[in-house]
Amino acid sequence: MDRVDISTLERLATPAFWLDTPLRVSLILLGGFLANMVLRMVIKRVTGKIADGETAKLDKFDPVAARKNSKDPRYWLMQDSPIAAVRRAQRSKTIGSVLRSITTIVLATLTILMVLTELNFNLGPLLASAGIAGVAIGFGAQTLVKDYLSGLFMVAEDQYGIGDVVDLGEASGTVESVGLRVTQVRAVDGTLWHVRNGEILRVGNSSQGWARAVLDIPVPYDSDVEKVSELILKTAMELRMDEDNRRLILDDPEVWGVEALTGESVVIRLAIRTKPLEQWAIARKMRARLKAALAEEGLRIPLLNQTVIRGSAPSAAAAQGGGTPQGEDPAQGEDAAVADQAEVGSKH
C-alpha cells in the first residue's frame, strides 16, 4: 500500500504527468471559457449596435420635416420610425440575451463532454442514457418546448411588447409581461390572463405604428348628405386643431361617404388616423362634438324601429265600455290613443 502511494506521488511529481492529461483538461476548460466569453462579447456588440443605431434614428427623427415631405412615399416609414425604433432596440437586446444564454449552455455541455473523454470515462452508455432520457423528456415536455419556441419567435418578430393592447383570442387587454413561456395580459375589467405562448394562434395588436378611429354616424334619411358630410368634416378638423389633440391626430380626418342606408337613417363614415392607443379617446371626444354640432343644425339621430298603432285603442275601449265616455269627443280620444301608442312604440 505504501509502495503504491509512493509511486503515485512520484508520478504526480514528474513533469510528464502534468504535461499529459491535466494539461489537456486545463486547455479544454480554458478554451471553452475563452470561446464563451468571445462569443458572448460578439453577440452583445452586434445587438448593441443594432439597438444604438435604432436609438440614434429616433434622436434624429424630425416630425416637422417628415410632415412637410408627406408626399414622399417614404413618409409613412419615417412617420412610423419613432415607435418602430424603440421596439426594434428592445427586441435586439432581448434576442441578444437569449443567444448569449444558448451559447453558454452549448459550450458548457461540449466542454464537460471533452473533459470526461480526457479522463477516460466511457461516454457511450452515458450518451445512450441521455438519448433515451431526452426522448422521454421530449414526449413529456413537448408542450413546454412548443411554448419556448413560440415565445422566442414572438419576441424575434416583435408581434407584441409590454404596454401593447392585444387580442389573443379569448384573452384581450394590455400586455404586462412577455416571457419565453407565458404572456400576461390585463383585461379591461382587471382580470390578469396568463396565456401560454404555444397556445397563441393569432395576435391582433392595436398598438403598433398607428391606429384609426372609425365612426359611423346615422343622420335622418331626408338630410342633405353633402351638407351633413361637410359639417362632420368641419367638426373633425376643429377637433384636430385643438391644442390637446393636435399631437394625437396624425392626419387630416376623412369622410369616406355613405356607409349604409336604412328606412330611418343614412350612415356616414368618418375616419381619423391617430397615434397608437389614442383611437378610443379621440372617438369619444369626436362623438361629443358631433352631438353638439348636429343639435345646433337641428339634426337629430333618428329613432329606430318606431311603431305607430292607429284606431285599435278607441275601438277596444268602446267595445268594453259600450261607447265613448260622456263629455269626450271621439276624435280627441282617438288622437290621444294614437299619441300614447306612438310614445310606447318609440320607447321600445
Automatic annotation (TrEMBL):
The keyword Cell inner membrane does not apply. Residues 314-348 are annotated as: Disordered. The chain crosses the membrane at residues 25-43, 97-117, 123-145. Keywords: Cell membrane, Membrane, Transmembrane, Transmembrane helix. Its main location: membrane. It is a multi-pass membrane protein. It is found in: Cell membrane. Residues 102-142 form the Mechanosensitive ion channel transmembrane helices 2/3 domain. InterPro entries: LSM_dom_sf (IPR010920), MS_channel_1st (IPR049142), MS_channel_C (IPR049278), MscS_beta-dom_sf (IPR023408), MscS_channel_2nd (IPR006685), MscS_channel_C_sf (IPR011066), MscS_channel_TM-2 (IPR011014), YbiO_bact (IPR045276). SUPFAM superfamilies: Mechanosensitive channel protein MscS (YggB), C-terminal domain, Mechanosensitive channel protein MscS (YggB), transmembrane region, Sm-like ribonucleoproteins. Residues 214-301 form the Mechanosensitive ion channel MscS C-terminal domain. Residues 143-206 form the Mechanosensitive ion channel MscS domain. Belongs to the MscS (TC 1.A.23) family. This is Mechanosensitive ion channel family protein. It comes from Arthrobacter sulfonylureivorans.
